[in-house]
Specification:
iron; transport; Globin; heme
Length: 130
């Protein structure tokens, strides 16, 4: 099985419980005061829905689907819009991997590396739009 298949299945296991997305934002906001402050007045239920879809888009692009939605996400997060700092994407990735470790019963260090490899092109595309 290739890495995109492994990650797709892992994400499916993680998405079985909404706590996955709650826990992600707890980890992510704990990673930086600036990030925590960014979410101060955010509808977190809506934000968790956006996260769920965004991660899936990254996985689907790695599986060969169009990157149009990720390009749009990069545009909305660039310096002229949400102004998401490029260095925050590393914190985002680490928070996601930590959450996968907690929620995927089949987690292994090899699966973590597969996640990194699958996430990289999508994160690079979004970060590159800054």
């Amino acid at each position: 099985m290739n890495n995109t298949d492994l990650v797709f299945q892992s994400y499916g296991r993680c998405c079985r419980k909404d706590e996955f997305f709650v826990d992600f934002y707890q980890f992510f906001m704990a990673s930086s005061d600036a990030i925590r402050n960014r979410f101060a007045d955010t509808d977190m239920a809506a934000q968790r829905h956006l996260l769920r879809n965004g991660v899936m888009q990254i996985i689907l692009v790695a599986r060969g689907m169009s990157d149009r939605k990720l390009k749009d996400l990069g545009h909305s997060h660039n310096r002229h819009n949400y102004n998401i700092q490029p260095e925050w994407y590393g914190l985002w990735e680490e928070s996601l991997l930590k959450t996968v470790q907690v929620h995927d019963p089949d987690y292994t260090p090899e699966l973590r590396q597969a996640w990194r490899e699958v996430l990289k092109p999508g994160i690079d595309l979004i970060r590159g739009a800054y």
